[in-house]
Amino acid sequence: MLSGTLNRRRFSDLSEQEILALAISNEEDDARIYRQYAERLRVDFPASAKVFDGMAEEEDEHRRLLIDAHKARFGDVIPLIRREHVAGFYARRPIWLVENLGLETIRGEAREMERQAEQFYRKAADRTSDANVRKLLGDLAAAEADHGNVAGQLEADHLSGDARSEEDADAHRQFVLTWVQPGLAGLMDGSVSTLAPIFATAFATQDTHTTFLVGLAASVGAGISMGFTEAASDDGELSGRGSPVKRGFASGIMTTLGGLGHALPYLITDFWTATTIAILVVFVELWAIVWIQNRFMQTPFMRATLQVVVGGALVFAAGAIIGGG
After folding, report:
1. Which of 230, 270, 272 is nearest to 252 (CA)?
2. Which CATH number describes the domain made up of 2-159?
3. Measured distance CA(111)–CA(261) in Å, rounded
4. Around 298, how many Cα atoms within 13 Å sit in the side-chain half-sphere?
5. CA angle 199, 256, 188 (to 5 degrees)
6. Could you give the CA distance from residue 263 to residue 199 in angstroms, rounded to a whole number?
7. Quick one: pLDDT band at residue 161, thresholds 50, 70, 90?
8. 51 Cβ neighbours under 8 A, 6+ residues apart
9. Is a pLDDT exceeding 70 seen at residue 125?
């Protein structure tokens, strides 16, 4: 890692030709990213896909202008230099880290790309002594700043109020189906189903180490089981619930966390201190489930309270009675 950093060029050491070549490669990369966003969104969000198609075309036009400027000043041979060759230069996040995070995340990433591009050209202009190159880079900075206006105009052309509202509603629905619903099911299962074995063990043995091991095993085991069950239950093609892998991870991780929440206090050696904290954690977990149900699943508050809090209290009581017997 250190060797790779040391082999990079400093931005201040780049020649005017290299700065222009770097700008060309930046525009090529950004146009490619916008097209990938468009393809990612085309089926579910066709209006937003058109916006990114238009932004890619804008980047292509700027790339053509940059190449013409390079030919006029330096000739046809463009040096090969990219972002990763320059120390401290901004980097684009890998496309797969962004495209799977939802519509609004992609829109936000595009806005940040335009801001970084403008900043690059302004810094480049400040470090250039040649008057013509300085003017060119200043013009490019202004063009990148205007990209925000272009994006806004493209959204106005392709994303009417109704279209954007519909796409936002679809994105929210997909987020709920893919992440919230399986995660909530996992949290409920992990929090409630592990109450009886953990507290039965606790009151039967009054041994915090044994209780923790039982809680850890129950939580991890339940998480693995729930994760695989969710992933295998529905491929998402017909139901529209999204990737089974994402749903499996959401369900499995939240199931494990739900159980670990009231198992971890038993790392404390004093039994009654650990048990008191574990009970408080259970209280917080159950009310968190109620809030999520009410917030994302539109479950009436009192109904969610009866389902979760009362049900959890009964399971806890069963574990305590069995362990105490």
Report:
1. 230
2. 1.20.1260.10
3. 38
4. 2
5. 75
6. 9
7. low
8. 151, 154, 155, 158, 159
9. yes
Can you give the pLDDT at residue 100?
Answer: 59
Long-range contacts of 245-248 (CB under 8 A, 24+ apart): 246/100, 246/178, 246/179, 247/178, 247/179, 247/182, 248/182
- Angle (CA) 255 256 259, round 5°: 90
Domain boundaries, the chain: 2-159, 166-324
Q: What is the rounded distance in angstroms from the CA atom of residue 278 to the CA atom of residue 261?
A: 8
pTM of the model: 0.53
pLDDT in tens, 210-251: 999 999 999 999 999 988 888 887 766 545 577 788 888 888
Residue for token pair 């129950």: 218
The alpha helices in the chain, defined as continuous H runs, are 2-6, 16-41, 46-74, 95-99, 103-126, 131-158, 161-175, 181-193, 195-205, 208-233, 244-261, 271-296, 301-305, 311-324
| DSSP string covering 236-268 | STTT----HHHHHHHHHHHHHHHHHHTTGGGGS
Token code pair at residue 210: 């044994």
Q: Which three-class secondary structure state does DSSP give residue 10?
A: strand
SS3 of 210-241: HHHHHHHHHHHHHHHHHHHHHHHHCCCCCCCC
| 87, containing H or E segment | strand 86-87
* Lowest mean pLDDT across 49-58, 122-131, 154-163, 307-316: 154-163
Tokens matching residue 245: 């892998």
pLDDT at res. 213: 95
The residues that bridge with 9 in the sheet, in sequence order, are 86
The upper half-sphere exposure of residue 114, i.e. CA atoms within 13 Å in the direction of its Cβ, equals 22
State residue 155's pLDDT score. 52
**Mean pLDDT on 103-121:** 78
